[in-house]
Design goal:
The protein is elongated, with a radius of gyration of 19 Å. Helix 1 packs antiparallel against helix 2. It is mainly α. The longest helix is centred in the middle third of the chain and has 36 residues. It is built from four helices and no strands. Bound molecules: zinc ion (ZN). The site of zinc ion has 8 residues, from helix 4.
């Protein structure tokens, strides 16, 4: 199994910076759509089909924004780990993470085994983050 070496840091830092820029763009876009929606509704009250489309769009964007906020947190944490040289190690068991896994998902914080344990816990985590409303923290 190939593992992360510190000599790969610039390459991974680049991938994470690009990912961060894309996520910030998504959050910026969805933020605009959501804030414009009430205004559009006022001006076109008679067109119910437009209103329905507008509201559906807002819900989709909100889900997308929540996902982007969550992923952005992981990307920022991964960049911190590159800086303090703990990147590439599983946060749970401390074993090196498979390099192919890091190439596919540079923000991965866990090895494949520990990640599958976390996936079982995810429904609980998702409920918790919705309750506190994570949207807009990075805009
Ligand atoms: Zn692990």
């Amino acid at each position: 199994m190939d593992t992360y070496k510190h000599s790969l840091a610039p390459r991974f830092a680049n991938m994470l910076v690009e990912r961060e820029a894309r996520l910030r763009a998504i959050l910026h876009d969805t933020g605009e759509v959501i804030s414009q929606a009430p205004q559009a509704r006022e001006h076109e009250v008679q067109d119910f089909k437009d209103i329905a489309v507008c509201e559906t769009q807002a819900v989709v964007d909100e889900a997308q924004a929540d996902h982007a906020v969550h992923e952005l947190e992981q990307v920022l944490a991964a960049r911190r780990r590159i800086n303090d040289q703990s990147y590439g190690m599983c946060l749970d068991c401390g074993e090196p993470i498979d390099l192919r896994r890091l190439m596919a998902m540079p923000a991965s914080a866990f090895c494949t085994g520990c990640q599958s344990i976390h996936e079982h816990e995810r429904p609980l985590l998702a409920r918790r983050s919705t309750a506190h409303g994570t949207k807009g923290r990075f805009s």
